[in-house]
Amino acid sequence: MTVLWTASTLTEALELNDTPSVVFESNTISIDTRTLKNDDIFIALKGINGNGHQYVESAFAKGAAAVIVDCEISGSKPCFVVNDTLNALQKLAIYARKQAVAKVVAITGSVGKTTTKELLRQVLEKFGKTTYSIASYNNHWGVPLSLANLSSDSNFGVFEIGMNNEGEIAPLASLIKPDVVIITKIAEAHIGHLGSVEVIAKEKAEAFKSVQENGVAILNRDDAFYDYLSDLAIKAGVKNIISFGKHEQATVRLLDYSTENQGYSSLITAQIGDQILKYPLSFAGEHLALNSLAILACCKHFGLDLTLATQALSSLSAVSGRGLRHELTIDGKPITLIDDAYNANPTSMKAGLSSLKNIQTTGRRIAVLGEMAELGINSKQYHQDLAEVIKTSKIDLVFASGEGMTHLYEALPSHVQGACELTAQNLLSHVINSLAANDTVFIKGSKSSKISTIANYLLNTSNPQPLKARA
Fold first, then answer.
1. What pTM was computed for the model?
2. What is the reported pLDDT for 35?
3. Is the CB of residue 19 less than 8 Å from the CB of residue 43?
4. How many Cβ atoms from other residues are within 10 Å of residue 1's Cβ?
5. Which of 150, 227, 293, 333 falls between 20 and 30 A from 274, CA-CA?
6. Are 365 and 336 in contact (CB under 8 A)?
7. Nearest CA to 355 among 469, 278, 266, 254?
8. Count of alpha carbons within 13 Å of 366, Cβ hemisphere only?
9. H-helix or E-strand containing 243?
10. Beta-carbon count within 10 A of 432 CB
């Protein structure tokens, strides 16, 4: 394995004048002593959640090879002093990217970023060493941290880019310098900050400006903004555009989608040129099937064996917090939990709810929904609009939390109303007391709604068995 970080390379990357007279080797940058491993480099960031300088001693106690700080630290441990540790992290990202020979993918979009990133990296790992953004490390510190861990012998790099406001995509994309940009879909996420879906699309398209020579943009052909995005990609100098979707002109086209295993898994038929591919997914939802096409499009661009890629896809499970299914036992009652509680916006919420209609169950379909945040002046309407989706998705009972969700709750027929509370904590007892044998419980909401506390309670109360993907 090629070693990326030594005293010499850190000094060079950080543009320091003197190299400490110490010897160490490391391939990992860490910002969290809770997950820091022996020989990691610890960088002490300052933020709203704390000051990493308070944990320097803990970092060394856990075996850190060196630390990067903005002030002198007493003792003889390897220490690199900089003016600004966040800026230092960005410098490490730039250095690591320059050393890399990996084919690099940047994934953005309003919905499906993390799921697509996780599935793509697992597929690419079948073909070579892959570095990727862990969790949802997609912001001003998450992206450079992920890049700083891009080893020079990686074959692939897969990085997620997120945003809440204008001006956030471009600097992150400029660090990544992607060979491929995937935009999953444009939707209303963070519209309260950005004002319109058009502004969201324009901001996402900023990633095209950093695409490397002979790079590619992979775009959703079914998206209303496809033509707009493809035009912006061309103007930014992207010479290759690959599309995916149900559209008859899609480069990677979904020919058929059907559910199996009582509606919990799916079977996909796709076409790429003259090649027809059929493969199962261990999770359901047409939106997830479409994202699998984006993964195949990326593999096609990299010249990888698509049959092997579909075999890899068929062996993967949904991502934790984003549709992962668990079989639980709560108070002696078998319950199916679909944990989609990590985040939500109107498009992802509708997609998740719609997937419930194909579930075949002797129990009830129960939706536990947290408020969708950052929707601006139209928040009431966005929440009310979910009522029709709930009706067509054969949902028997709805539990809702948050002020926005009161508008949905009031729009529902009384026989569907379970309970509505302002907080997820207050909603919890209503959900628990209502559960009956063989119920399927779908949980989703914005992260700020804390609806995930209900999913976590169910998981911790039971002995969960995440369903395995088919081999």
1. 0.91
2. 94
3. no
4. 9
5. 227
6. no
7. 266
8. 25
9. strand 240-245
10. 14
